[in-house]
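Q: Hi! First time doing this. I have a protein sequence and I read that you can turn it into a structure. Is that right? Here it is:
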Amino acid sequence: MEPYFKNFKFYIVLSMIFALQSCKYGIENKTEVIEIDEKTLFSSIPAMETGIQFINHIPESAAMNSMVYEYYYNGGGVAIGDIDNDGLPDIYFTANLEENKLYRNKGSFEFEDISKKAKVEGTFGWTTGVTMADVNADGWLDIYVCKSGKGKEENRENLLFINNKNGSFTEEAKKYGLNFSGYSTQASFFDFDKDGDLDMFLLNHNVTPITTNNPENFKLEKNYLSGDRLFRNDQGKFIDISSKAGILGNSLGFGLGVSIGDLNQDGWPDIYVANDYIEQDYLYYNNGNGTFSEGLKRSMGHTSHYSMGTDIADFNNDGLLDIISLDMVAEDNYGIKTSMSGMNPKAFQHAVNNGFHYQYMYNALQMNNGNGTFGDLAQLAGISNTDWSWGPLFADFDNDGLKDLFISNGLKRDFRNNDFRKYKIKRLEEAKKNGENMAQVIEELVNKTPQRKTHNYFFKNNGDLTFEKAMTHWGVDIPTFSNGAAYADLDLDGDLDLVISNIDEEATVLRNNSIANYLQFQFEGNDQNPFGVGTKILLETDEGLQIAENYPTRGYQSAVEPVLHFGLGQSKTIKNAIVTWPDGKSETITNPNINQKIRVGYKNAESVDQNPKSSISPIFKDITEVVKVKHAHIENEYDDFSGEILLPHKMSQFGPALAVGDANNDGLEDFFIGGAKGYAGGIYLQKENGTFASMNPSAWIMEKEYEDVDAHFFDADSDGDLDLYVVSGGNEWEANSNMYQDRLYLNNGGQFKKSTDRLPKMSISGSTVKPFDFDEDGDLDLFVGSRMFPQKYPYAQTSKLLENVNGIFKDVTLEKAPALEDAGMITDAIWTDYDGDNKTDLILVGEWTGIKFYNYKNGQFELNPDILPQSKGWWNCIEASDMDGDGDIDFVVGNLGLNSKYKASKNAPFEVYSTDFDDNGTNDIVLGYYDQGDLFPLRGRECSSQQMPFIKEKFPTYDSFGSAKLHQVYDKEKLKEALHLKVILFASVYLENLGNGQFNNHNLPNEVQISAINNIHIQDFDGDGINDILVAGNLYQTEVETPRNDASIGMILKGSGTSMFTPVPFSKSGLFLNGDVKKIKAIRIGNAQNSSYLVAKNDDSLKLIGIR
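A: Yes, that's right. Below is the predicted 3D structure, encoded as structure tokens:
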């Protein structure tokens, strides 16, 4: 039984009577009897009981619709706050076209409409967002209302209702300098300059979408009406300092969400702005000097595309504030196929190349890494697809100590429905041609526009970076057109209730039935900020930390009560509650009693050290500059998708190669780094002082046309020095091109020369080379992995086994390892004795392959199909070590990870079919995924028909294609003849060796499932005598409809000598390996005791990290 409800009728006496801990705290003592007859967390309270009969009516006509104003169905907002200081939070709703409403809370979920008496119904025009703030610092909440639309300027003046302290308000926006008359969405009041009073950020939006092939031309264009604004409070008058403060204000700004929080832990509030359309979101870092620096692109690998609402909160209780922004992609196959148009790769790349960011049509959950960077975890978290979403709110709704997530949803008219858009264009052309009454035609089209009524989402936080849908379980699954929403403890019973604004139906009021423990904080701030906006609370409990900051504007066009709420679950004790006010002054409340609302006062705060020294000494440090490693890998331009439109990711960008060895026999380790096609690689020699210098760079220019993807130093000719083997790969050339020929460079006194007669001809696009003396004749033989069949995904060429015969390498694959011919798309290999028979075996991993074990028996390598038969994944790397100290070899294997659009399981595998489906002489790729038990094509009608034109003829509408299962789209005989591969596992794993070919498969912690793992190193990094695991990776080459894997910054998993591993965050490890990390090699600098690590990234600079 969960702590928040009972399964029978009962009476709860909610007693909140506690002894006062100290005369300096104000503690509310409440006793209330509530009858609950519920089996769910929430109860929807009808309007006839609450008295809240607000409806945001949106009438439609030829002049009133989304064709005239695209934001016509964006809805209104909700603000909650105690406007009469009676201890009960009141509710204000904005109506887009009608009168706004203010409801006074009378207690026990009874409300009174006091809008007319309070004089806050608003003015004529289009109304958007609302927030409450004590603008004149008199201890009473005022109401700020935003206006927009395509009406007259005088009808767009924002409104400021100043509280008269008698149940009425006076509109005084002009008096305070806040009567902006542009196109406003929402306002957030906060003390950005820490001078004690409240300033204001005003979020605005353009009202006319910008349609151009060159949006970059508008980047620097100032737009007074649609650009965002920052107003500084100068003794009660608000002054526009936007330009001076560094706030962007161009025509591309379509701001739909704004959130405030200290995102980089410097004590100053930062701003996150969610932008619709092509302009990326903005992340304004507060410089602490009255200005901001926009730093989104350096902080986030990608964002949502059509960003809607946003919220900032610490969802994973690590003490760092995270960010969520919403988009509008459906959860189900039909919704995705009918409402999501195909992305244009050229337009996407043009935008990226011209100053915009990587943006994808999915929700983004940006987890704070603690070093000024964030990683999007929405796919891993299970919250990426929530349909046409508006307002996200993080809050602990079930009071278990973890912040859950609410998302408002629904669209009255789905004007982006693909079939309707086609029909609209055709119908308008027809009407124009026939001379019809256009007003009547437009009204006809409005009425024919499909509706998108959808349930709102509740996600319960699982505490492991994932969420689970809880709508049905929590009793809230009725479809609506919902927009703004806000939470507050409306009945003062210790849990968060929720109020939601709906279009064309009564607002939703949800009573929370939780009975778990909690703690709330109300603020008595300074004379200029009485409600303590910006104050931070940090709770220290036996379960860990919780933090929250008091910024009411959240979600979408809405604002919550200026009270901070913490769920405690079954915890009954709090170690400390640390209160930090906006100016940095602090107070620590020790062992506060639970289940109460504490009123904390600024007068009790004391000055503290604003920059305390950390006692943590991180494990790693960046020493790139120290050792003078200056090399950048530059990737050549090649469009893999031009010939294979339906590729899941590029196949031409797996470099650079990286190898470490003593190239000149001076006792110091040197390295080789490869180049992409058209760019030379090179060898860097280590000097006695530990720095590096390039060795004979001109010699490698002759080799620059190859694509170097792997390399290894080893003694190929048994002459006592290290030669260099370089693997040629890529996808730029057709199969069997000489450019895929691997190369062997013989070392002659420290000078390297390419051998022309020691390797067999083998024009395969390779991936890896692994030397080992498999025939035990004293020299090193080679395994060479084949990555792909060029330009024919997902086919593969044969991998190779090369036997070293007196320095000449002979292809013995057919003779000694025939099973390698169909090994698949190999990415990595390892020589190891996994079964303890004193014979070294070969293990291979790859894309669309299982983890393959090849036993060496009677002079041959034979595939053992009985080991891990259910292990097909997109494997990238494998490393071996006895992790549990039981004497056998365990393995850590890197996979795509669980933070991808692609999902796979045994019952719902991710699949691919490949053949010439349209009989035009070229290979076609069909990716398939499961939705509600049925297999559907992954890609949409638009891009699929570009590859196979018959699809548009067979499925003339998006509706028909969206309803079709994969076997209905493609010919059954073609599917039978096609290469058919499946993946059932995308998680990176630890394989615990049990002996006798048996393994326990343990998923690595979710903290490292956030992206593809391309590299693994096992070592005792923290000096405790137990091996740890270093992982790094990412995958930047995804097609443009799939968010690229860019969340990883590398991580240490602390070993325990068992199958349990503990993620070590950046704050303790110092490990920061962002970017598209492809190779990591250990290298010893001088006579250092510990190895350092060379990190090679695709299309990026080489990096060297050392252990402190």
